[in-house]
Write a structure and sequence with these properties.
The complex is a heterodimer of chains A (356) and B (344). Chain A is mostly helical. Chain A has 17 helices and 4 strands. Chain A is 65% helix and 3% strand. Chain A has a two-stranded antiparallel sheet with strand order 1-2. A two-stranded antiparallel ribbon of chain A has the order 3-4. In chain A, strand 1 and strand 2 form a beta hairpin. Chain B has 2 domains: 216 residues, Rossmann fold; 83 residues, Alpha-Beta Plaits, CATH 3.30.70. Chain B is built from 13 helices and 14 strands. In chain B, the strands form 3 sheets. Chain B has a 6-stranded mixed β-sheet with strand order 6-7-8-3-9-10, with helices on both faces. Classes of the chains: A mainly alpha (356), B alpha/beta (344).
């Protein structure tokens, strides 16, 4: 079985289209990361910086206020960082000078840049630890886009697992002793393994790049005290950046195996890899096109589908279960179910396939 | 070992590719002859359990091949027509992959694969990628993969396609040496291949086996109907258009010698010739007429004489029925169908 899996993995990664799709996903990911890093901007104390210097400046500012967020610290930040109303009376909340300033004004400023009177307990309901989280949260956002791309690359990679054999090799495989049994299983297992491997690889690359660009700072800080662009529509409960990354890693992997499950079934059911790609991409993306509001109970079910798991933020934004765990953990049993069905069904369809 | 089909039928829409077939195959080499669309490939796929029959069964020693599953497929070697391959695989890797599918492992698989590459003349190309292979080389690789597991039942669909004469001879020798104690079924359009390898010929037409016998005997069907006659070369085209000509040979003296299959002496100077398998093939599978698209086949004569199609000649000319015909009704028994019973 292991030997057959080895051959299947070799076939999977040996295809030009797969290589091109994976390379494109890596390039897009690198592009997102570099672009985000290059576009970082910060100004503080009369200094202005962009790119790596902006990150350094943001870290410098964050270091001044790092630790537990208190009402005193909020007022201190408002005094020292909050800009007053900008040109043409622009709402001060939307003015951006640096990550810490944007974080504090997003939560504690009125439109003129004055303290809005809210206390930490009223805004967050609990004590939170603050620091430089802008880097890791930006990396997380980039990963979200990268994993969405990657999910399509996975579908392209898995489309020929079964359907690629229907061009003639199915004659040889299905007439051989283990063609309908061990080979069918090896194909499914290799497909799932390949999906997990490329996702883990992409995850490692992204986390490695983020570590190199942003360092360790902020991993133990709350995601709630973040610049405005990273808080709007974002995860509404208190977890650290490190925990967030952990959930993102978990959901990207569950999303990958789910995607693999769907992709394998359609690969087995479609006559050609091209039809399998189109069909699986359509099935993958359809949930995001449905006219279902995020406030709808139906969305809570849709969000457990692979495309949302790969995007992760939409799923994480659905809050927590009663036990305090994120709702997103429900993706685990859902993924296991989709994976089991995908594995069994694809194997069965292939084993019952009649050559034409 | 006995491979048997019982009223085996495969239907695509209204067309019956295999029509209520009853044959019993025991050890030996069987040559399957038939025109395009006769149902040869479908029959082979049914025997390999690659397609589900619309009706009937395939039995190995009395057991349905479907229920035997892996056990049956473990006995099987199959070379499909125009099989697919993995262009990026090296020849040896491809064979090792197929070996793994067939349950061969480790050094035994490697030894077997290398031995077969040697036997089909590809040992020097063992590490070449398949995408660099010619059609004939791919075909030889296909033959090698079919024999990897020393199959007891070897089914080869058009195995000599793309092979040059030397390779065809090599293939014949390989099959002859291999066939002892096994069932080997091969289909081909190259009649001479079947003639030299097959112990028995199955002639298939419209989804039915219309004749079976040893090569020497089966041609006796048309003894007395194969003629050779010399004509002026400039008249050759006219005669070819009008008659069922199996061969045409230009002589140095400006004459052309035609080999004609005809019930009656086609011209005064015609002389009877010893029939061969190619003549028989043409006898059964004459192309459609150029006019109204009506098929000019001997079946019309068969019907006229009241005999079953394809079997008429042997009965008409008194030749013995091909060996192995049980003479027992097969059970399909519709009007106009060959009722010779099992082919053995």
């Amino acid at each position: 079985m292991r030997k057959l899996m080895g051959y299947e993995l070799r076939k999977l990664f040996g295809r030009r289209l797969t290589q091109a799709a994976l390379l494109a996903a890596v390039l897009f990911s690198a592009l997102f990361t570099v672009s985000t890093y290059q576009n970082k901007y910060a100004s503080y104390g009369g200094r202005q910086a962009s790119g790596g210097e902006a990150v350094a400046l943001d870290k410098e500012v964050a270091a001044r206020y790092a630790g537990e967020l208190t009402d005193e610290k909020v007022r201190q930040m408002m005094d020292e960082l909050a800009p007053k109303s900008g040109p043409q009376g622009l709402n001060a909340i939307y003015l951006y000078q640096n990550a810490m300033q944007s974080a504090v004004t997003a939560r504690f400023s009125d439109m003129y840049g004055n303290w809005n009177g809210l206390r930490v307990a009223e805004v967050f309901g609990e004590e939170i630890s603050i620091g430089y989280v802008d880097g890791w949260l930006s990396a997380s956002r980039d990963m979200e886009k990268s994993f969405l791309f990657l999910s399509f690359a996975i579908l392209i990679m898995l489309a020929p697992v079964y359907s690629g054999e229907y061009g003639g090799v199915d004659n040889l495989i299905l007439a051989s002793r283990y063609g309908r049994t061990k080979c069918a299983s090896a194909k499914a297992l290799a497909g799932i393994l390949a999906a997990v491997l490329v996702t883990a690889g992409m995850l490692a690359c992204n986390v490695g790049a983020a570590y190199l660009l942003y360092g360790r700072e902020g991993l133990d800080c709350s995601i709630l005290f973040a610049p405005l662009a990273l808080t709007e529509g974002y995860i509404p409960f208190n977890i650290t950046c490190g925990a967030l990354l952990g959930y993102q890693a978990l959901l990207s992997l569950t999303g990958a195996v789910c995607t693999a499950g769907v992709g394998l079934v359609l690969s087995a059911a479609c006559r050609t890899p091209m039809i399998a790609v189109v069909a699986s991409a359509a099935v993958h993306i359809v949930p995001t096109l449905l006219p279902v509001a995020e406030s709808s109970p139906l969305f809570r079910l849709l969000a457990l589908l692979p495309v949302y798991q790969m995007q992760f933020e939409a799923l994480m934004s659905l809050g927590q279960l009663k036990a305090g765990m994120p709702y997103a953990v429900l993706a685990l049993p859902v993924s296991a179910g989709i994976l089991a069905v995908g594995y069994a069904l694809s194997r069965r369809i292939f084993a019952a396939h009649e050559v034409a | 070992m006995e491979l048997k089909t019982v009223e085996l039928t495969k239907q695509y829409g209204k067309k019956k590719a295999v029509d209520c077939m009853n044959i019993t195959l025991t050890e030996g080499v069987y040559g399957l002859l038939g025109a395009n669309g006769a149902g040869k490939t479908t029959l082979m796929r049914l025997l390999c359990a690659l397609q589900r029959p619309t009706g009937g069964r395939v039995l190995l020693d009395g057991q349905g091949i479907g229920s035997l599953g892996e056990e049956y497929r473990g006995l099987l070697g199959y070379l499909p027509q125009g099989f697919g391959y993995y262009p990026n695989f090296r020849a040896i890797d491809f064979l090792l992959y197929i070996a793994a599918l067939k349950g061969l492992e480790g050094k035994a698989a490697e030894r077997k694969a290398r031995g077969l590459l040697e036997e089909v003349g590809l040992s020097r190309e063992a590490k070449h990628r398949i995408r660099t292979f010619s059609g004939g080389m791919k075909q030889r690789l296909g033959i090698a993969q079919a024999m990897l597991n020393d199959p007891r039942i070897l089914i080869l669909d058009e195995p000599t396609t793309g092979l040059d004469p030397k390779e065809r001879v090599r293939f014949r020798n390989l099959i002859s040496a291999f066939s002892k104690g096994r069932i080997v079924i091969l289909s081909t359009h190259i009649v001479s291949d079947v003639e030299s390898i097959a112990e028995r010929i199955l002639v298939m037409k419209s989804g039915r086996i219309v004749h079976c016998g040893r090569p020497g005997e089966i041609t006796s069907e048309i003894r007395g109907q194969v003629w050779e006659c010399a004509i002026p070369a400039e008249q050759a085209d006219r005669y070819v258009a009008q008659m069922n000509v199996s061969n045409l040979r230009n002589e140095r003296d400006g004459r052309t010698v035609l080999r004609v299959i005809a019930g009656d002496k086609p011209m005064p100077n015609a002389e009877l010739a010893e029939p061969n398998l190619e003549d028989l093939y043409l006898y059964y599978f004459r192309e459609q007429d150029t006019g109204g698209g009506q098929v000019r086949e001997r079946d019309s004569l068969a019907a006229a004489s009241g005999a079953a199609p394809g079997h008429r000649a042997s009965r008409d000319n008194g030749a013995p029925a091909a060996e192995g015909l049980s003479g027992e009704a097969s059970g399909c028994g519709r009007d106009g169908e060959w009722k010779g019973g099992d082919v053995r």
